[in-house]
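Re: that backbone. Tokens:
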């Protein structure tokens, strides 16, 4: 079972790469066989159909990498050190130098539990099995992202990673629902102008946008965003209520318009990066 799907990576016609790490829906049998809860609970871990939000950008020709295996199998937005020793047979907790808050909450590189549901797995995973998942599925995804960003930078002098996610309904301090959250690790993973341009794009279309609150980005941005090398990365969180049904299970017709909105944002950012907007202004 393949780890990811690539699109438009031969020509690299744009300086922007779209990554969709949490929409994978190909569940390995060994995962389902070890479930301690109904399989439907695993949908809460998915960025449900976030890959369809990338469809417009992909059809336009933007290079993309989309995970095929689910977050329940391996979380591509966690570092390989974020292993919960309580779910691994034969692993000494002393081998984990510092257990993060997310890992303690059950959401490490291999999710262990969900709030209101409890432990996901009947039996602990074998240590070697965990290592194999990381080496065969987690690391190859990141190596491919690195290679693609390096190729884009070599061609255009700069590169931008748009890391596409979806989020449950969240609200600002005034109780207003947030439609999009743009995270750049508070400017550490991306020049602020790219995140600001994206925010303006969505606001101009009437959407409520926040930057870095409540999501500032995770391991993917930490690993791949290198502004000093002119490789930038930001995370885009899309409120699931914009494109999924009331049960947050199936896509609505609105999925297409949200996808086109994201695709147009990619075009705008690519023009800014390539300088074509300056050429057009001079004509």
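Recovered sequence:
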């Amino acid at each position: 079972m393949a780890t990811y799907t690539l699109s438009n990576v031969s020509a690299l016609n744009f300086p922007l790469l779209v990554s969709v790490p949490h929409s994978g829906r190909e569940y390995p049998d060994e995962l389902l066989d070890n479930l301690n809860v109904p399989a439907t609970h695993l949908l809460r871990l998915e960025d449900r159909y976030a890959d369809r939000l990338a469809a417009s950008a992909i059809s336009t020709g933007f290079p993309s990498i989309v995970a095929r295996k689910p977050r329940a199998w391996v979380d591509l937005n966690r570092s390989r050190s974020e292993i919960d020793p309580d779910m691994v047979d034969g692993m000494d907790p002393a081998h984990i130098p510092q257990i993060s808050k997310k890992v303690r909450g059950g959401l490490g590189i291999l999710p262990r539990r969900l709030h209101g549901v409890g432990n996901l797995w009947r039996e602990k995973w074998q240590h070697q099995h965990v290592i194999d998942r990381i080496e065969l599925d987690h690391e190859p995804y990141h190596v491919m992202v690195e290679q693609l960003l390096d190729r884009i930078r070599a061609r255009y002098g700069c590169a931008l990673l748009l890391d596409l996610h979806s989020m449950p309904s969240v609200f600002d301090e005034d109780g207003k629902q947030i439609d999009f959250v743009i995270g750049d690790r508070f400017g550490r993973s991306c020049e602020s102008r790219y995140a600001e341009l994206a925010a303006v794009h969505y606001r101009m279309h009437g959407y409520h946008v926040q930057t870095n609150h409540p999501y500032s980005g995770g391991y993917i941005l930490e690993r791949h965003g290198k502004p000093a090398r002119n490789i930038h990365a930001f995370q885009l969180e899309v409120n699931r209520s914009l494109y999924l049904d009331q049960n947050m299970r199936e896509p609505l017709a609105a999925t297409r318009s949200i996808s086109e909105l994201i695709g147009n944002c990619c075009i705008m950012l690519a023009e800014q990066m390539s300088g074509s907007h300056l050429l057009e202004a001079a004509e």
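Confidence is low (pLDDT under 50) at residues 276-283. The two ends are 50 Å apart (CA to CA).
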